[in-house]
Amino acid sequence: MVIILGIESSCDDTSAAIIKDGVILSNEIASQKVHIEYGGVVPELASRAHQQNIIPVVDTAIKKAGILKSDISAIAFTRGPGLLGSLLVGTSFAKGFALAQNIPLIEVNHLQGHVLAHFIKEHENDTNQPNFPFLCLLVSGGHTEIIIVKSALQFEVIGKTIDDAAGEAFDKCAKVMNLPYPGGPVIDKIAKQGNAFAFNFNKPKIKDFDYSFSGLKTSFLYFLRDRMKENNKFIDENINDLAASLQRTIIEILLDKLVKASKQTGISTIAVAGGVSANSELQKQMQIIAKKHNWELFIPSFGFTTDNAAMIAIVGYFKYLNNNFVGQDVVPTARFEI
Predict the structure, then answer these.
(1) Beta pairing class for 3-8 and 13-20
(2) Cβ atoms of residues 226 and 142 within 8 Å
(3) Structural domains in the chain plus CATH codes
(4) I need a labelling partner for 104 at 20 to 30 A (CA). Which of 121, 244, 261, 283 fits?
(5) CA 330, CA 75: separation in Å to the nearest integer?
């Protein structure tokens, strides 16, 4: 029996989870509302909130799992990538807990956590996991990548953004339209009432499987600037159509590359992961394309799309089985490639 305590503190969510032999027992998340008024995450405020939240969140996760601290086999924590101050809180707690309980310490790459969220079992008989190898489209606020997942601990990034990530494009374009932060979920919601083909925006021409979203963001900004000169109520009068058209463009950019990658690699088992994978239109379009190309498609449960400790714990579980531990000299890192 292997019981892993997972700790996630890479950005503005403090999370703790317990996984037993791959099955989730608890997954507690404390979100920080303070950043909404600033229109984005303020690193100093985030790290302070993590300090306040981490002990009660871990305590709640252990109690809800119905276990004792002494039952825990190892503690897995997010080493990076992320905000350094936030990561430092989680790393320091994990080190102290590991010392106090005399258990191994496991570092986890946050991005691998998103990918392996597909292997979290929600009950003992849960068999809804992709077979290796599979392609994973990882889309979040800070990262957009296409990854060949060869095994639970073997990843090959074949495409990534050369500038902004898809989630970042959603949020920044939402801000230009005076929508609240985080903008991605708001755009997803109001786009349902809009015409996705009302407006056309530039798509970048980037070679191979790499992405770029900075050009789209700039063209969207200039488009609005020019239209607002003609009509200062343009955004308010067209907000639903703007959201729907922007969302369609981002999704088309994402999926065009994914289809190309599937054809070139010959891999038809496809997964999506990361915060943007919760976007309802992205999921809908992926299902349509999966049917067309005969893909076996895997979309994570909503609770495992955003940052959470269950995904850190499942990576920790696989690393535990492989005796992949780190020492007390481990330090967090803001940049951490898969």
Answers:
(1) antiparallel
(2) no
(3) 3-122+306-321 (3.30.420.40), 134-300 (3.30.420.40)
(4) 121
(5) 13
